[in-house]
Specification:
This protein is α+β, with helices and mostly antiparallel strands. It has 4 helices and 5 strands. The chain starts with a strand and ends with a helix.
């Protein structure tokens, strides 16, 4: 399983991912589900729920989830891929990163200000992506 931050909104990310799957002529099922995560305010942890765009790719047993968390101020979108085949997962992530208008770890100046320079999604995003696509 790979969980990576991405600098686009979940709806845009899901649409871009769907275009890639269509281009590769994969048979897939798209569903919408929910996922819980923890948001910390001061010292109190709050359970939150996020809407998840889920893609179940039939021919390769891949499961892809795309969702947004609100850890403090701002939003962080994630893509998570579960697969037994590491090579296929790596290739799919690489093609997905190349299909986006900019690199998935290149947050805008506004996003960095809103979320914080060292927030969990922005800090070391490039290193996380590069470790999974190279």
């Amino acid at each position: 399983m790979v969980k990576l931050p991405i600098c686009f909104e979940p709806r845009t990310t899901a649409a871009s991912f769907r275009k890639l799957l269509d281009k590769k002529e994969y048979k897939y099922e798209r569903t919408i589900t929910h996922r819980t995560y923890t948001k910390v305010s001061f010292v109190i942890a709050h359970e939150k729920s996020a809407m998840v765009y889920r893609y179940l790719i039939n021919n390769s047993k891949l499961k892809v989830d795309i969702w947004t968390e609100n850890p403090s101020s701002g939003n962080v979108t994630y893509i998570e891929i579960e697969s037994e085949d590491k090579i296929e997962r790596k290739e799919l992530l690489k093609e997905f990163a190349l299909s986006l208008p900019r690199k998935p770890w290149e947050y805008t100046f506004t996003q960095k200000l809103r979320n914080g320079w060292f927030s969990q999604g922005i800090y070391r995003a490039k290193a996380k992506w590069e470790s999974h696509i190279k």
